Amino acid sequence: MVARSYNACLVLVGRFSNTPIFLPFHKDDTAMDKALLICKRVLSWTAIFTNIISDRYPKFTSALWTNFNQLFGTKVSFSTAYHPQTDGLGERMIQTLEDMVRKSCAYGLEFKDCDLFTHYWCTLLQSQELAYKTSIHASTNQTPCNNH
Questions:
Q1: Which residues form the signal peptide (predicted)?
Q2: Which helix (H) or strand (E) holds 76?
Q3: What pTM, to 2 d.p., does this model score?
Q4: Distance between the two ends of the chain, CA-based, in angstroms?
Q5: Is residue 148 one of the residues assigned to a domain?
Q6: What would the DSSP string read from start to end of 23-71?
Q7: 27 φ, ψ to 5°?
Q8: Domain ranges, residue 119
């Protein structure tokens, strides 16, 4: 899929390690598309989630997601609408990611490098994820990579 066509980002955050995973996707992706994306990018290198706190996004409340989580033994808790305290860590990570993307793409959702090659916001996600994971955080005096 062409990088320019992505129009959303799925943000996953490890509750204890504070380690983020940023996954570009399309708003019209099906629940199956998102399940395959998570299997391909997340389950291949990390442990299976034991607990997920999610908003009530319809694709994450579907029968497919219920079966997906039962298969892996994952407990799903849904946050209450307009109650960001339930999932403050996720909300804060989304705000941090938005700030990083804005600073990198100050003049729009695409930018040119020193060789005048055009990049799109979603091509930055993995490098911004790495930058976040390897930066020392004031609350722990460690990087999220060291908190596993």
A1: none
A2: strand 75-78
A3: 0.67
A4: 32
A5: no
A6: EEE-TT--HHHHHHHHHHHTTTTSPPPSEEEE---GGGSSHHHHHHHHH
A7: -60, -30
A8: 3-140
Please give the structure tokens belonging to residue 51: 């607990």
* Bridge partners (DSSP) listed for residue 77: 53
The pLDDT of residue 8 is above 80: yes
Is 147 contained in some domain?
Answer: no
In this structure, what CATH number is given to the domain that contains residue 121?
3.30.420.10
Q: How far apart are CA 124 and CA 100, in angstroms?
A: 9
Contact by Cβ (8 Å): 124, 97: no
Place of tokens 């997906």: 68
Confidence of residue 122 (pLDDT cuts 50, 70, 90): confident
86 — alpha (psi -120 to 50), left (phi > 0) or beta?
alpha
Strand partners, 112: 118
For 65, other C-beta atoms within 10 Å of its C-beta total 22
Whether residue 1 contacts residue 23, with contact meaning beta carbons closer than 8 Å, is answered with no
Residue 137 DSSP code: B
